[in-house]
């Protein structure tokens, strides 16, 4: 059986991630249309970064950082309904930066993307932190050409794992189709071997139900071993 070819260079790896993101864009249905939320997309991207051995590093351009106070008026109301203006003093930070993709298998292979950050909070540290957080989120969304509805990221790590399991199941399902064809074809010509086949497959799947296999490696091994099983009969 021909093994799935893994992406080698950094552009192939980024393209592989983009392809997976395109697949998941319409993986949910609700309110009469298909959708997927940003937090799910982002968790999948970072999960695939781990799988394809990619790192994403932020780099602030030296001497580009600007920190400045920002004062504005906010209209508020008292409990009695009286309207008044409150003076708000905050900090704005902006800077030029780069996001750098790194191929972990060949660290000299890199792709630099010019970007920028801007943050506004009550103090400089918070402004800087929020600017990096939003820059990271929206860089990934724009780099992979993903729509940006309102999002509220949570359960990030569990969704990363779920994304990888979903991809493995998709690959396993393709292999299982081949297994099913070969099993049915074999039993059509050798119906008396049904119990032997069930017992053999039971070593790989409980009760001989190969449709429940979610691991592509296990599915591939079953397919290869079953072909040997057939030749030996």
Describe the structure.
The protein is α+β, with helices and mostly antiparallel strands. The chain has two domains: 145 residues; 74 residues, no CATH class. It is 46% helix and 25% strand. Strands 3, 4, 5 and 6 form a four-stranded antiparallel β-sheet that branches. A two-stranded antiparallel ribbon has the order 1-2. Strand 1 and strand 2 form a beta hairpin. The longest helix has 34 residues. The radius of gyration is 26 Å and the shape is elongated. The chain starts with 9 loop residues before the first helix and ends with a helix.
Q: What keyword list fits this structure?
A:
elongated; 6 strands; 2 domains; 233 residues; 4-stranded antiparallel β-sheet; alpha+beta
